[in-house]
Specification:
CATH class of the largest domain: Alpha Beta
CATH architecture of the largest domain: Alpha-Beta Complex
Distance between the termini: 27 Å
Radius of gyration: 22 Å
Strand order of the largest sheet: 11-17-16-15-14-13-12
Number of strands: 17
Shape: globular
Number of helices: 7
Bound molecules: FE2/S2 (inorganic) cluster, fe (ii) ion
Strand content: 25-35%
Largest sheet: 7 strands, antiparallel
Order of helices and strands: EEEEEEEEEEEHHEEHEEEEHHHH
CATH superfamily of the largest domain: Naphthalene 1,2-dioxygenase Alpha Subunit, Chain A, domain 1
CATH topology of the largest domain: Naphthalene 1,2-dioxygenase Alpha Subunit, Chain A, domain 1
């Protein structure tokens, strides 16, 4: 049996794993207003209440189906634009102007939403207590500075973009990095794995050979794959690590909408004020460098992992991890059109 015939989930556009998916920038969702947002085939209404919390519900009113984004936000509740039914912050109907009886009136279905890194995220899993938003493992619990980087669309499945970071062969061919990358896999949880380099940094490149004078250990390159389609990269010499989160989400066509998040440790006082913007800018350049080389490939690729070879070991490890991920059934209907 050919390798790809055993694959049921990896790179398959009708499959959506449980996880956190970015929806939009936080700044776009203003207080006391409602907005239409679509994730795959699911139409949502997002609103920011007077408590500044963003909530999301199925978009259509259970009475006659008016889109609630045309309604009004009252406190933390929303009132339908059509017959003025009012739903509270849990989605429960609390007022019908034409009658006082409210029994057997269906509620709005809520969706699990969280804000982080200047983005609004949707949890697609069934568990009532979702896992944390992706972080950089070595920065867990540390106060962070961050900025949003580029926003991009790639004409290929999110998995194809994700494996690019561990595609050892292409670092030589596309990015001209002469390195025999050998990635070690460490499972961090059922839904999260980390791949880190075990090979020293390439010394054939004169810039990197010069840079090596300034640190002791090998250049670290670590890729962490979280639930859903988000990955975080840590790269750098031991005195300065750069951190980039690649938040991806699938489109109905099986393409990728991505947003990079550039992260660094919060540094106190004047040093932080001066150094952190420089580090975040340098992080952006690192991210752009990696993103630039693959654009032409991603525009035309007809992805099928037909012939894995030994050098694709890290990708095979990721495929196995992904094949074990749980489906986000609620969001999968009609995604393989
Ligand atoms: S359609 Fe919403 S109240 Fe009638
Ligand atoms: Fe690349």
């Amino acid at each position: 049996m050919a390798y790809f015939e055993r694959i049921k989930q990896f790179g398959v556009s009708g499959f959506v794993p449980e996880g956190w998916y970015w929806l939009t920038r936080s700044e776009k969702i203003k207080k006391s207003k409602a907005y239409p947002i679509k994730f795959l085939n699911t139409e949502l209404v997002l609103l920011r209440g007077e408590d500044n919390t963003v909530r999301a519900f199925d978009a259509y009113c259970p009475h006659m189906g008016a889109h609630l984004c045309d309604g009004t936000v009252e406190g933390n509740a929303i009132r339908c634009p059509f017959h003025f039914w009012k739903f509270n912050s849990d989605g429960k109907c609390i007022e019908i102007p034409a009658q006082t009886e409210l029994t057997n009136i269906p509620s709005l279905r809520p969706h699990k939403i969280r804000e982080a890194y200047g983005l609004i995220w949707l949890w697609t899993g069934e568990a009532s207590d979702p896992e944390d938003i992706p972080v950089i493992p070595e920065l867990k619990g540390i106060p962070l500075d961050f900025t949003l980087g580029s926003n991009f669309l790639k004409n290929c499945h999110p998995n194809v973009v994700m494996i690019n970071a561990i595609d050892a062969q292409h670092f030589r061919s596309v990015h001209q990095l002469i390195v025999d990358l050998n990635m070690k896999v460490t499972p961090l949880s059922e839904r999260c794995i980390q791949l880190s380099n075990t090979t020293p940094m390439p010394e054939k490149n004169p810039i990197l050979r010069f840079a090596k004078k300034f640190y002791k250990k090998a250049l670290t390159y670590e890729m962490t794959y979280w639930w859903g389609h988000t990955g975080s990269v840590m790269v750098g010499p031991d005195f300065l690590h750069f951190y980039i989160i690649f938040a991806l989400r699938p489109t109905l066509e099986g393409f990728t909408e991505g947003q990079t998040i550039l992260v660094t440790k919060k540094r106190k006082g004047l040093i932080g004020l001066i150094i952190n913007p420089i580090i975040l800018f340098a992080t952006k350049l690192v991210g752009n460098y990696f993103a630039k080389g693959d654009t032409i490939i991603f525009n035309r690729i007809n992805f099928k992992f037909n012939t894995p070879i030994r050098a694709d070991k890290a990708i095979i490890d990721f495929v196995e991890h992904y094949e074990a991920q749980r489906p986000a059934n609620r969001y999968m209907q009609g995604t393989n059109t």
